Amino acid sequence: MNPRMKRITFRLLPLLGLLVGLCGPATAQDLTIRKTTEPITVDGKMDESVWNSAEVATNFHQFFPTDTVMSPLKTEVRVLYDAENLYILARMWSVGPRDEYVTPSFRRDYRGRAFDGFSAVLDTYQDRTNAFSFGINPFGVRREGLVSNGGELSLTWDNKWFGTSTIEEDHWVAEMAIPFKTIRYKENLDTWFVNFYRVDSELGEISTWSPVPLNLSPNNLAFNREVQFVEPLNDPGSNISVIPYAAFGTAKDFVAETPSTSDFDVGGDAKIALSSAMNFDLTINPDFSQVEVDQQVTNLDRFEIFFPERRQFFLENADLFSSFGSSRTTPFFSRRIGVARDTATGTNVQNPIYLGARLSGKINNDWRVGLLSVQTARDNRIQLPSTNFTVASLQRKVWERSNISAIFVNKQAVQDSIGGDFTLDPSAWNRTLGADFNYASADGYWTGKAYYHRTWDQDQRDSTFSLGLNLELDAYRWGVRTGVRSVGANFNPEAGFVRRRDFQQHFNTIEYNFYPQRGPIQSHGPGFDYDIVGNQQFGVTDWDVNLLYRIAFRNTANFRLRLRRQFTYLFREFDASGTGGLALPEGSSHWYNFIIASYESDQRKSFFYELSTRSGEYYNGTRINLEGSFTYRFQPYGFVSLDFAYNRIRLPEPYNDGDLYLIGPRVDITFSKNIFWTTFVQYNNQINNMNINTRFQWRYAPVSDLFVVYTDNYFTDINNRFVDFGAPKSRSLVLKVTYWLNV
Fold this sequence. Notes:
24-stranded antiparallel barrel
């Protein structure tokens, strides 16, 4: 193509993109995947002759910093399959000879838009709603995740597959083998929806095989292309995985002044594929001691803080259970199971689980189902009875990318442990029933939700509902989000998460985007939003109005600014200092102005940082807030970082002033792709605690690990801001071995 024709083509690309958006994503078959009988060795080399006969996916489109041109970097992807595996080989060229690629470390499940990598997004159900994501970087570090709700990627899912990479003078090669037993798909289907995307740190570019508008996510399933298998895919056969563990632990509670305890536990999980699209998970006496501790936050809010789920048993098809309602009001929150609050240390601790079972997956192309039942143990230390949690959900696909879902949650206490009578306690139960409609347009620009939930318990109270309606537009120039919520005074899903009750809310956000053709800024634009909350008893209890500005830089840095005017009516007393001092009185009203700002530096650099602030007027006083993290990466072996939060609160007499510190140094060293060591320290004078958590992990076989985890908690002093190492709260040491066995 001559230069003049190239210029004409590039000028037409925005118009072509608009036509594609108006007509919906193309579904023409773009790649035929051939079957091979030749053995393929996953070594990051294109040395099997069969690769030369595979069709090539190339001509990648730039996604970032702009979506109107083809990528200047050459990328080629080949895909083959046999009876057991899907094979993917990708070759990614640079502008010229290249010495350095960027990775956070050798640790699995790397993330970030600034690091080199290649990912394949496989919509094996062809519903443009759920998919599997497999990624690898030039150092052979792998990641796998689940895509739900049309484009939301979670990397907490873990499973067995194979991949490696090699680096050549001017390009790198990635090779993957993904067992069909690892993924779920519809049997006898001969087409999938697939996309590939690449992150290149040298140019700061993200490119995709199938073009995706830059205002969306490269994981957005609305734009995946259809690929054709030469033969329909059959059931992969018997697929049973058993993951037993053995753990030895010793612990000491210094506050209760009890003797040290030692325990030896065995248990494990089983994953049984009932079909190519339906999975049954079983767990017996699970131990989650190897799960990384929650990152603490300074809580100057009147409501509970949300912490995400990290435990493997709850993660596959998690959206069938956890995506109901909104992030602040959901009928089921899996962290209510097996995690309890230890009031002595102010931290979350394990509540043992006797037994758990999950059934989840596709019945057919239109129906998905999820069933969950877990029995937790009695814990006399924190006065928790043995409790059964049962959840059932059903989802029906409507239109191209939308669905209607229903959920039922039952929490039932029992009168004794599982070793005793194990009879139901009729005076301690809680149930929730709800329905959601999730909307996603075929072109990916519009999303929305409507839901209604209701709870019941033995008290038979009224006003036990939660409902909401919201609609979002993510267009090239405009972003709009609007919605309403209402939560009854007695809405009480004990197995869910409810940030606040007895309110009605209306919120609205509108943003506009500019895209400069030159210079360091990729996009920028103003915005405006407001949020109004109230109830019948007190009228308007909260509102805020915000002027916004956002700047995204081509080097992957970001800046956000929000000027806020806020009103808060305290319907109950509240200690604004966060120190346990005199509370502001119930019924008082407060108007205040402050600034919210954040900046994220270029993460491609060895040293990078994030800073944020919420400073200005604060209730009847002032607040200076600075939070962030500093990270130095000694590539490719790991990083050291310092997370911190400082709040300087000044209130008039007789209220307390507050100087709240949260400091969290972290060392993460990956000696290889199989041996990791992490130490995480959290000093939090608000909860009078310093936590030390150090974890060694050796992945001695695929998805099979040896863990050594040490945890220590000490008292701190909120006024003098010191750690009393002579006054520990608790201490524990755990040795755990897991092994993934395919039966």
